[in-house]
Specification:
heterodimer, A: about 375 residues, three-stranded antiparallel beta sheet, B: about 625 residues, alpha+beta, Beta-lactamase, five-stranded mixed beta sheet, five-stranded antiparallel beta sheet, 23 helices, 21 strands, about 15% strand
């Protein structure tokens, strides 16, 4: 489209009411349901009490929900313009965390803002998606075949991945790389290049293992042989699996979980929260929660498919992948499928900063949905 | 261009569906894994959770002891074996209980309580089946372990009170925590945990309770411990040290005999309470296991109210024991001097009311010294009028009466002395007659034995002593009162004459000790008004029904020259203070001077003539296995 036409067709700014009308309230309802599940889980993690976990959980969610709706009202084109600025900020913060960050669990990942602690890597996931989408938004299929065009975005992925690896936080680095990869894929990366990359990774993995930190190596070893150290690092996995498995089909009943209530489970209110639910409500409850998480994930894909501009599509795809990664890594971890990684279950685990970042991500996704039909200057350009 | 756009969007759609497919597969993998764990392998995991696994047990902390001033435990713990049931470790609670009933025996009431507990508690919190097991029962349970899934024998601690009823009111008692307590502190759900309900057990609850520990155990399918993996011992409750002398307590209790009332003994220099007896009393250990309804009903309907702590909560009109405070108020106000003479014709006319002196015919000419010695009512009616209610109340407050004294025993009352402002606030028409009878401690004034003892101590030492029963590391004498020593000396002289002058109202209790003997003040407080008609007809309160007789009071301190101890004795409905309370006070003073606990680091051994001990005063022989405490008579620790 020519510049001239674009000016003519520039849509008048839609009113706030109209925008709110376009928000997918079904999606908001699903998020509220998930937070409700989180409330129940936190309530039983506190041993049947609103404090210290369940009450703050709801308050934070209420705040985060308002923030999410606020983000959803921001014009997606404005977000696109800000994408690279956000990316730059993310990189600066990641660098700052290496220099000033607080050490926890032998890794430097937390940045304190007053009493509020958060991980810049959580924010990085969102701004990386935005930045990549902004890069690819006008790239045609032909252009995607040009390797030179792919080098800058590849660097944009590798820079934060490298910084996060240096924290060190292997799990998050892999997740960030996976999210970036999905945006590449959606933009039209050739399959053979994907295969090439996968092969390179397979070759590199043993090399990376050599450079892992002791605790990371031990996590992987223990994951492979949990019974080796039942009271040490393998304890978490064993107890988590016992709690899950002993729930059976119908569960042990609300507040009746022996493993969770007796403090066998370490950090039960954060990373291992799912086991509390699974123990008390059994397979039925686990499937219900799993189904809810699946619906939220696929709702993101629907947003991507319904969007009429490439930027929105790529953003929605990347953010969906982000949410999916949280869910999959956390659940696979508590089921003993992958090594223990320190990834929370979104909106269910205790912790304010992670919830805030998840909800900001959902807010951007909603902004894509609200602004799915806007005129965007991102039509595919020839090489 | 649209074609290029179309191609791109259809490729995106395909790619997005690819990604979705992978995600769906991943969710499927998670679902399959959940199925595998929660359905296929559920039994294996459940076995691991229930049986042959690592189990954490909370260890109840040992409650802190309460020790008297010489370290003798007045609230102690003894080891007990008890049978516990962990409902989560048995498939059928009823079947287990049936088996337990066959082997050990259970009453229907016990069974009901156990079932209630099982349903109220969470399934992994142990429920007490039987709190005190004999060796025989313990052996039976161990032998029959296979028939008793979920039942374990556990060593715990039970609260015992070696002195039984003797210190029941001050020390208080513990009881089973209720659901609200457990909500506030979940560790109270542990078997054997008790919560202080009254007295110092309640006051010191926070420090006495301690913090539960956690033990990680590997247990087999019968719940038997295979090995201990780790142990966080928890923090036992801190001991509490008292200023009380348990031995002196027994003597004071013996001196009270079968009378209803209270006796408080205090160190005049620093306010340490050495004995605080209230009769009749109750057995505090009964609350540990639960009080039967019949007994409870008996307690609360008993006219002598055994549960009431008369020393700190009993409110009595002080009668003439209030006169020293009135005398000091008048001296301070200048409305009377040691030389002032007032003539007592046996009554005083105020308006159209006539107020009688207790002595028919009157005392004649009286100065302050004689008026205290003879407890002349007309003299005090007169100076009360001259001084006014508010100045009397102010002096009463200075004497520690009707002001919060901050004693550690919960529920301690301050007592009450009226002021004109109070009368205005409560729309009481205050007449001169009201002021007049305040001069002899009647009317609205109501005071506790503890505050009367405080007054006696303050007069004796001239120090603003504050009573306390919990011992702290800092021992310091109380600050001096802001009173002219000459006024105090005048009042002391009068109180000395009460006991030592042959004409004194309490000459019958003269104490033959070095250092000037004992000083005191009698009090006889009417609980019903005596009408003029009754007065004119002549009356004998000893012939009245018990409930209507006046209270007998006596406050005293000794030795006169260099005071050490003060006491206040109140005998409910004991008639004249001189004949009811004063002899008790004399005996009490003899005991405390002989034992002299304030100047000793170890208790006096030779005391405690076994025969003098009443059943109540004897340490309850609950069979505490603590070495060196009591079996029959007390062998001092």
């Amino acid at each position: 489209m020519s510049l001239f036409e674009k000016r003519l067709l520039r849509p008048e700014a839609a009113g706030l009411g109209a925008k709110l009308w376009r928000v997918s309230w079904l999606y908001v309802l699903l998020l509220c349901l998930l937070a409700g599940v989180g409330y129940v889980a936190q309530y039983s993690a506190s041993g049947g009490s609103v404090s210290p976990y369940a009450g703050p959980h709801v308050l934070r969610f209420g705040f985060a929900l308002l923030l999410m709706l606020g983000v959803a009202m921001i014009d997606i084109r404005f977000i696109a313009r800000m994408a690279w600025l956000g990316y730059a900020m993310g990189v600066v913060l990641l660098a700052a965390v290496l220099k000033f960050g607080n050490v926890g669990n032998g890794a430097r990942r937390w940045l304190a803002l007053g009493s509020f602690q958060w991980q810049p890597s959580e924010m990085m996931k969102i701004v990386l998606v935005l930045a990549l989408a902004a890069w690819f938004r006008r790239a045609s299929w032909e252009r995607m075949g040009n390797p030179v065009f792919l080098i800058p975005p590849l660097l944009a992925v590798l820079l934060p991945v490298g910084l996060i690896l240096k924290e060190p936080n292997l799990g998050t680095a892999v997740i960030v790389a996976a999210i970036g990869g999905v945006v590449f894929l959606g933009a039209g990366l050739r399959w053979w290049k994907v295969a090439l990359l996968a092969g390179a990774l397979a070759v590199a993995a043993p090399l990376v293992y050599q450079h892992l930190h002791g605790y990371q190596k031990s996590r992987i070893m223990i994951f492979l042989h949990p019974s080796r150290d039942p009271l040490g690092a393998g304890y978490n996995i064993i107890q988590s699996k016992i709690a899950l498995g002993s729930g059976g089909v119908w569960g042990k009943g609300f507040l009746q979980g022996t493993q969770g209530q007796l403090n066998f489970l370490p950090e039960k209110q954060t990373d291992f929260i799912f086991t509390i639910l699974a123990e008390q409500f059994g397979l039925v409850g686990s499937y219900a929660v799993l189904g809810l998480l699946m619906l939220i994930t696929f709702a993101g894909l629907v947003v991507a498919l319904r969007c009429r501009h490439q930027f929105g599509r790529l953003v929605a795809l990347g953010l969906t992948m982000n949410f999916f990664c949280y869910v999959f890594v956390n659940l696979a971890m508590v089921m003993g499928l992958i090594p223990v990684g320190g990834v929370p279950l979104p909106l269910v685990s205790h912790g304010g900063s992670a919830m805030l970042m998840v909800m900001i991500g959902c807010g951007v996704l909603m902004s894509v949905h609200v602004h799915r039909d806007v005129e965007f200057d991102d039509a595919a350009e020839a090489t | 261009m649209p074609k290029r756009e179309q191609r791109r969007s259809s490729i995106f759609a395909r790619r997005a569906l690819n990604v979705g497919g992978v995600q769906l597969a991943a969710f499927g993998l998670l679902g399959e894994r959940l199925w595998q764990m929660q359905v296929a392998d559920a039994r294996r995991y459940r076995t691991m959770a229930d049986n042959n696994s690592i189990s954490a047990r909370m260890i109840a902390p040992v409650r802190g002891r309460i020790l008297d001033r010489f370290g003798a435990p007045v609230a102690d713990n003894r080891q007990v074996w008890r049978a516990l049931l962990i409902a989560g470790e048995t498939r059928n609670v009823r079947a287990t209980l049936d088996a337990f009933e066959r082997i050990i025996g259970l009453t229907p009431a016990e069974r009901k309580r156990i079932m209630r507990d099982v349903f109220q508690q969470r399934r992994f919190v142990p429920v007490t089946l039987r709190a005190f097991l004999t060796w025989e029962e313990m052996a039976k349970i161990e032998v029959n372990a296979p028939d008793l899934p979920g039942v374990t024998v556990d060593v715990g601690h039970s609260r015992v009170y070696p002195y039984g009823r003797l210190l029941a009111h001050t020390v208080g008692y513990v009881a089973r925590p209720n659901q609200q307590d457990v909500k506030r502190d979940p560790q109270l759900a542990l078997p054997g945990m008790r919560i202080g309900r009254t007295g110092l057990e309640a006051y010191g609850e926070a420090s006495l309770r301690g913090t539960a520990g956690v033990e990680q155990l590997e247990v087999d399918s019968l719940g038997r411990v295979v090995r201990k993996l780790s142990r966080q011992p928890g923090v036992p409750g801190a001991d509490m040290h008292l200023t009380l002398d348990a031995g002196l307590h027994a003597d004071v209790r013996a001196a009270m005999g079968s009378k209803t009332g209270s006796a408080v003994v205090m160190d005049v220099t620093n306010g340490e309470v050495l004995a605080m007896v209230s009769t009749p009393s109750f057995d505090p250990s009964l609350f540990n296991t639960g009080v039967s309804n019949a007994r409870w009903h008996d307690w609360v309907t008993n006219v002598r109210a055994p549960l009431e702590d008369r020393s700190t909560q009993g409110m009595y009109p002080p009668g003439s024991t209030f006169k020293p405070a009135v005398a000091l108020a008048a001296l301070k106000a200048g409305t009377v001097t040691p030389k002032t003479i007032i003539f007592c014709p046996g009554y005083i006319q105020v308006g159209n009311r006539r107020f009688h002196c207790w002595l028919r015919g009157g005392h004649g000419a009286q100065d302050l010294h004689l008026a205290i010695q003879n407890s002349c009512d007309v003299f005090f009616y007169t100076i009360a009028m001259r001084t006014g209610m508010d100045r009397m109340a102010a002096m009463a407050h200075e004497m520690g009466l009707a002001v919060p004294l901050g004693l550690e025993v919960p529920g301690t009352q301050s007592g009450f002395v009226p002021t004109l402002e109070w009368a205005r606030a409560h729309h009481q028409l205050w007449t001169m007659g009201d002021t007049v009878i305040q001069g002899i401690g009647q009317g609205f004034t109501a005071l506790t034995p503890l505050s009367l003892a405080t007054m006696a101590a303050r007069i004796a030492s001239g120090r603003a002593v504050v009573p306390r029963v919990v011992r702290t590391n800092v021992r310091k004498d109380a600050p001096m009162l802001d009173l002219d020593p000459a006024w105090l000396q005048e009042v002391r002289g009068g109180m000395w004459a009460v006991v030592n002058n042959p004409n004194g109202t309490a000459a019958n209790v003269k104490l033959d000790i070095p250092g000037g003997g004992m000083a005191g003040k009698t009090g006889t407080a009417q609980v019903v008004n005596v009408s003029n008609a009754q007065w004119n007809a002549g009356y004998h309160t000893s012939k009245w029904p018990w409930k209507l007789r006046p209270h007998g009071l006596f406050i005293a301190y000794a030795p006169y020259d260099a005071p050490l101890y003060a006491t206040a004795v109140v005998i409910e409905h004991g008639n004249e203070g001189a004949t009811s309370a004063a002899p008790v006070a004399k005996a009490v003073m003899e005991h405390v001077l002989r034992r002299d606990p304030a100047r000793r680091n170890t208790p006096l051994h030779t005391a405690m003539a076994g025969g003098a001990m009443t059943a109540e005063a004897a340490p309850a022989g609950t069979g505490a296995p603590r070495a060196g405490t009591m079996t029959g008579g007390r062998t001092a620790p």
